[in-house]
Amino acid sequence: MSKLRPNGVVAILTDFGTVDHFVGVVKGKILQELKAGQMPLFIDITHEIPPQNIVAGALKLKFSYKYFPKGTIFLAIVDPGVGSQRRAIVVETEDYFFVGPDNGLFSLVLMETKPRVVYEILTEIVLKPPYSATFHGRDLFAPAVALLLCGVPLSEWAKIIDSNELVSLDIYEPEPISGGYRLQIIDIDRFGNLITNLSQELLGERKAKVVINGQEIRIVRTYSDAERGEVVALFSSEGLLEIAVREGSAKEFFGQKLPEIFVFINS
Amino acid sequence: MSKLRPNGVVAILTDFGTVDHFVGVVKGKILQELKAGQMPLFIDITHEIPPQNIVAGALKLKFSYKYFPKGTIFLAIVDPGVGSQRRAIVVETEDYFFVGPDNGLFSLVLMETKPRVVYEILTEIVLKPPYSATFHGRDLFAPAVALLLCGVPLSEWAKIIDSNELVSLDIYEPEPISGGYRLQIIDIDRFGNLITNLSQELLGERKAKVVINGQEIRIVRTYSDAERGEVVALFSSEGLLEIAVREGSAKEFFGQKLPEIFVFINS
Amino acid sequence: MSKLRPNGVVAILTDFGTVDHFVGVVKGKILQELKAGQMPLFIDITHEIPPQNIVAGALKLKFSYKYFPKGTIFLAIVDPGVGSQRRAIVVETEDYFFVGPDNGLFSLVLMETKPRVVYEILTEIVLKPPYSATFHGRDLFAPAVALLLCGVPLSEWAKIIDSNELVSLDIYEPEPISGGYRLQIIDIDRFGNLITNLSQELLGERKAKVVINGQEIRIVRTYSDAERGEVVALFSSEGLLEIAVREGSAKEFFGQKLPEIFVFINS
How many other β-carbons are positioned within 10 Å of the β-carbon of residue C248? Predict the structure, then answer.
């Protein structure tokens, strides 16, 4: 088993927003802790996770990580428990490092790719006074990322823990009903598409029909197969069934009340 | 004719927004396809082009490209036709590469700087399964940018096409009327300035007066030449006539109903 | 006194927003003026300073700069006086360079870290025609940053001025009242926390109680010490007293009318 090394890419996902200075300060702090001349490449995944919404953060991370090169460090911070006893962790998988709080944020990723080693960051070593009780992104996680980038052995600033003890989130599988599934909307994207929890994998080769608020809609391959303004279902770029309106927004179409969505298997 | 080489800078303009993971994933995918150690410099132009608004994207790109160094790759994705038969292209000009859909997004730029060679990306080569029918930014354009950055000859993954066949947008020139022009508002910026389609070039040395909703306003050189709260006209940093309110927002001043703007040439 | 050299990091704070192309163009312009192969690392602190709000910009900069490595160039542009006679400056401190307009934007930083040398940028040298009277970010400050990065001596494009002549902002110290202080809210962050002007330093070891709209609230160490929905006071990551609601937003809790906040010293 060859040793995984950081490739210099740090991909960051938070609920910090971009109105404040928080994200810039986290990056500054990482740079401050590196050796002179070391230049990582920061990639922002998103900082617009709704405040303290761990599930939303876990989903976006699951949708993203596999498109990054081997050795990427993912720094993910959605951390309502900051300052409490929740653990700070580093998870090493076959291809990646994940750094952040142990609150389930990584659990959807870790259903797809097994952890190789899980570490708890030793705060008594990494958190240097004076530090804030509310901004571990700057005072704890940024230095941890810098230690990784500098190649300081994890044994010096973290201890191995049991991966089965990690906090994990409930998975939202579609609810089986007679003849099919009742779906849940787990995300709404910028274009107003409603992303459901039915994966292409679960459906497999079975033919299905999609019923939304009592009306059947077409399953198409891509947006441009729909008529302008038509409500359709299609598989998203993440392999999940989504509801879309061609050249419009399904979110606006359905308004405040999210629609009920069923999938029935053709037999 | 010396060969244009990428300089490592990738400037990105999309309608993806920053709430989702889309932009981060596109960058991740580019990195994933590069050789170990290759580190491009990503510059975000904007990701807040209104969804599927090709004209807005084309304008912002036209306002931006010439300030980047020679060899920059522009990756521009506003792509309502994703998954349809619309072509994916690479346009090489004297100084730059442009990568994106052939839907007019580059046409305003190409009125100013002639294409040297135009290529259609061979999707059967670049689009590797499994791929999504709705996210060509990740599955088609990102790999194309990586191929450019790696120096893989375009002849291996694209074919030359006729630049006269590119989709182009209608240009919005000011409408000539008796004694002057009726202007159109083509953009509203963050500060609420209303950007019109009258260029300093078109006006030339001629003296003019600006009439907005029936009232003449002053033409000033810069915001600080206006009184606080005064509505004035001035030439924007892109050389277009704009309507501004000193220490205020012209957009808020005029509210929902955009004003009628005329320019009369003094004779 | 050893000479301070740029480390290649350019941290940028503006009121430009991210909807337009302005920030991308400033970065492009810096790159365009560098030597081939020179690759700075751009860090966005924030671009969402409310338009022309110099105080907000000065605060966010003060909250951020000290977490960046020695040699960082801070480019800060909140510039209502663009095109007027306001000076364009470079401030060199022990550890950093600051580039931007002389309108008080740097004054809160310079209360903490003394300027070593202050320069006025010679616009007749740095501002190259054709230039815009309204976009000095692109036409003046970006070239100045590039000159710094290229190591061109400041004596060639700037002149030393007296640091006592710099424009400075009024400082918002808490107003002393009988038995304590009346606080002011100086910032509201993404999470709806209300940041006041009472620093932990000013309070020192003294015990205090916080009264908000006539009701005493608890001072806690971290968000997770509060009950869900409880209004509490705690010291922010910048060492200022803030009002927070656990798993909620103090901003939403108090609505339109900002609360009155007093601190009384226990004697």
Answer: 18
Omega of the bond prior to B130 within 30 degrees of 0, cis? Answer: yes
Question: Prior bond to C176 cis, omega within 30?
Answer: no
Give yes or no for a cis peptide into A130 (omega within 30° of 0).
yes
**Residues C6, C16: contact at Cβ < 8 Å?**
no
**Which tokens go with A41?**
């490449």
For B5, nearest residue in chain C (alpha carbons): C36
Does B50 reach chain A within 8 Å, measured CB to CB?
Answer: no
What residues in B contact C31, CB-CB < 8 Å?
9, 41, 43, 68-69, 72
pLDDT for B1 equals: 47
pLDDT confidence band for B2 (50 / 70 / 90): low
Name the nearest CA neighbour of C74 among C13, C115, C16, C135. C13
- Whether the per-residue pLDDT at C1 is higher than 70: the answer is no
Domains and CATH numbers, chain A: 9-165 (3.40.50.10790), 175-265 (2.40.30.90)
Closest CA to A94 of A73, A74, A71, A122: A71
Residue A62 contacts C, CB cutoff 8 Å: no
- Cα angle at C133 between C128 and C138, to 5 degrees? 60
Place of tokens 């409408």: B175
Mutate to test the interface with A, among C39, C190, C249, C253 (most CBs of A within 10 A): C190
Sign (positive/negative) of CA torsion B34, B37, B38, B40? positive
Residues A130-152, buried b or exposed e (16+ Cβ, 10 A)?
ebbbbbbbbbbbbbbbbbbbeee
Distance CA(B41)–CA(A103), nearest Å, equals 33
Helix (H, G, I), strand (E, B) or coil at A22: helix
Nearest to B234 by CA among B256, B212, B253: B212
Q: Smallest CA–CA separation between C229 and chain A, in Å?
A: 13
Q: How far apart are CA B219 and CA A86, in angstroms?
A: 61
Do A165 and A245 contact (CB within 8 A), yes or no?
A: no
Cα-only R_g, chain A: 21
The closest CB to that of C247, out of A17, A80, A134, belongs to: A80
Contact residues, B window 84-103, toward A, CB-based 8 Å cutoff: 84
Looking at chain C, which residue has its C-alpha nearest residue B10?
C28
> Which residues have C-beta within 8 Å of that of residue C87, sequence separation ≥ 6?
C101, C102, C120, C121, C161
8 A C-beta contact, residue A116 and residue A65: no
Pairing, β C175-177 against β C180-182:
antiparallel
Residue with tokens 């309108």: C103
Closest by CA to A40, choosing from A58, A28, A51, A52, is A28
The model's pTM: 0.96
CA A93 to centroid of chain Cα atoms:
15
Residues making up chain A, counted from first to last: 267
User: Tell me, what amino acid is at A256?
Assistant: Q
Looking at this predicted complex, what is its ipTM? 0.95
**Residue C54: beta bridge partners?**
none
Which has the closest alpha carbon to B61: B109, B10, B111? B109
Banded model confidence at residue A1, pLDDT cuts 50, 70, 90: very low
DSSP element (H, E) containing C19:
none
Q: Is C144 helix (H, G, I), strand (E, B) or coil?
A: helix
A222 contacts chain C (CB < 8 A): no
